[in-house]
Design brief:
alpha/beta, 17 helices, five-stranded mixed sheet, 66% helix, abc type-2 transporter like fold
Length: 421
């Protein structure tokens, strides 16, 4: 065991002396994580509009007109959907609020003079006090515009008053409001016929509430990354791991071509000692890169894992997988140049396919399916599961198990090939 540790320390010291190796294992991954984190942290639109959902359950002319006026408001971006989907979008934090027009909205809009005003439901996170007040004001504005439209349209006003007079006949004669309302509506009917402006008619009438807003609270669920860096730091860490893989893999080829491996085998060291020392050194370097980048992300960019235990499991599984891949990479060429070219020719497609450049959740469906062939995908998925996907231990077993399996198989193939050579 002492011999293996001595060989591992020797390889780690060589790595620290190589400026290129340090750059591609620590500096370059950090640049990747920060650069793409800046990109994903912005909204990319420069828009200050409030994104909300609108659900029209009434499907009346008045409800459709109300939503149409909301869509024209320069302060809002409207996504029309169902009630359940609207509430879900607010809970997931994808939209800021949801406006639901329940059944009966259109009928209530035609009864400005009696009964309850038209009602809308406003679903919003209770922590968003400022946005709630702003949206309530915008909704009241739309309700007032609806009333103003009726008063300014003589035909619409006439139709509404006539309908109200017809509905008034259904009230009981003992209702104390029936006689005053009958007189008022009759006078208003004649007043509309005079073709006076709707504003004058409204000024002689009592003050009605144009809209009733029923505010409902729905707290946002933590179902996604809190910032762009929680997406990009797993990618950056994978680039650091790849740097370790290529550095140690090419290092084995270099020692073999320069005769160092032969001289070591002439000492009281077996081939198992040599390969185990390389594996321990690579495994240690990968863990140092993972821990260093995660610590930097935690301190500087608020990358906060949901579970440190699961993150540790993900890091160990990724290290095992890529130590095996390192050993296999060292057998891909007889010279340093050949091994480096073949290694990057294999790893670059796997990295691109596995989400090392483009996040998995923005890939098209067919590419997500194809990414199952890449160990990079499972390493990133395991880290994301511990950071922001909220994986349980049971859910972590699949990506971590695949990583360990890949590492064992690749290490076995690599050592067997190395022995045959």
């Amino acid at each position: 065991m002492r011999a293996i540790l001595a060989l591992a320390l020797k390889d780690l010291r060589i790595l620290l002396r190589a400026r290129t190796g340090i750059f591609f294992t620590l500096i370059f991954p950090l640049l990747v994580a920060v650069f793409f984190g800046i990109i994903f942290s912005g909204n990319g639109t420069g828009s200050s509009k409030i994104p909300i959902a609108a659900a029209d359950e009434d499907a009346s002319q008045a409800s459709r007109a109300f939503i149409a006026r909301l869509q024209k408001n320069e302060n809002l971006t409207i996504t029309q959907t169902s009630r359940d989907e609207a509430s879900k979008l607010v809970r997931q934090g994808k939209l800021m609020a949801a406006v639901v027009l329940p059944r009966g909205f259109g009928a209530a809009s035609e009864r400005f003079f009696y009964g309850n005003p038209p009602k809308v439901e406003l679903w919003i996170d209770p922590s968003r006090k400022a946005e709630t007040a702003m949206l309530q004001g915008l909704l009241f504005q739309q309700g007032a515009e609806s009333m103003q439209k009726v008063f300014s349209d003589r035909a619409a006003s006439k139709e509404m008053v006539q309908k109200a007079l017809g509905d008034l006949g259904q009230l009981s004669d003992t209702d104390q409001t029936k006689a005053p309302l009958n007189r008022f509506l009759s006078e208003l009917d004649r007043f509309v016929d005079t073709r006076l402006q709707g504003q004058q008619a409204a000024s002689n009438a009592p003050a009605w509430q144009p809209l009733a807003i029923d505010t409902k609270e729905t707290r946002e669920e933590s179902l996604g990354p809190r910032n762009g860096y929680e997406v990009t730091f797993p990618q950056g860490i994978l680039w650091g791991i790849l740097g370790c893989v290529m550095t140690f893999g090419i290092g084995i080829v270099s020692e073999r071509t320069r005769g160092t491996m032969v001289r070591l085998q002439m000492s009281p060291l077996t081939r198992i000692h040599l390969l185990a020392g390389k594996a321990v050194a690579c495994f240690t370097a990968i863990l140092i890169v993972e821990a260093g980048l995660f610590a930097f992300g935690r301190v500087c960019f608020r990358v906060r894992p949901a579970s440190w235990g699961l993150l540790t499991l993900a890091g160990l599984s990724a290290a095992i997988a890529f130590v095996g891949i390192m050993m296999l990479t060292s057998t891909l060429g007889k010279t340093e140049q050949a091994a480096a070219g073949a290694g990057w020719a294999v790893m670059m497609p796997l990295t691109m396919l596995g989400g090392g450049m483009v996040p998995l959740f923005v890939m098209p469906g067919w590419m997500v399916t194809a990414s199952n062939l890449s160990p990079v995908k499972w390493a990133i998925l395991a880290m994301e599961g511990a950071i922001w996907r909220g994986f349980s231990l049971r859910e972590m077993l699949l990506p971590c198990g695949i990583l360990v399996f890949v590492g064992v198989v690749c290490f076995a193939i690599g050592t067997r090939t190395f022995r045959s050579e």
